[in-house]
Amino acid sequence: MTVTLASFRAAYPEFSAAQYPDATITYNLGFASRLLDQVRWGELYDDGIMLVTAHNLVVSAPSAVGASGRVSGTPIGIAASQSVGSVSKSIDTGIGLQDGAGLYGATSYGRRYYQLLTMIGAGGIQL
Question: How far apart are CA 77 and CA 82, in angstroms?
């Protein structure tokens, strides 16, 4: 299967056409396809393409707020502290982050991509 705009939107319906224009998603799909080696990724190639695309869309469009009132894919953490008077809440989004993930740790899509990347990148390739 090759990832298309339609298959991406079917897999990730949170990226609606109203917030993410077709051209933006199409560009990011093409960009992601140039980052991943199809031979190395094998059957997970399309999954990798879609995860990188979703991650890049969230990172590049922080104003796209979903029905939950937050940007799709942004990290959800556990409450680290809370107050009632003058309302204050602190959330620990570092839970589950992997060392070395860099910007991929900023979204749930990026974290899933990075997890796959570390598994797929294991071992050498013989040429």
Answer: 13
pLDDT of 11-52, one tens digit each?
Answer: 999 999 998 999 999 999 999 999 999 999 999 999 999 999
What string of DSSP letters covers 79-112? EEEEETTTTEEEEETTTTPPTT-GGGGGSHHHHH
In the chain, how many domains are there? 1
* 96 located within any domain: no
CA distances from 54 to 37, 46, 74, 79, 123 (A): 18, 12, 11, 26, 27
Range of the structural domain that residue 66 is part of: 5-73+103-120
Q: Helix 45-60 vs helix 108-120: angle between axes, to the nearest 10 degrees?
A: 140
In sequence order, the 6+-apart residues with CB closer than 8 A to the CB of 118 are 98
| Stated pTM of the model | 0.71
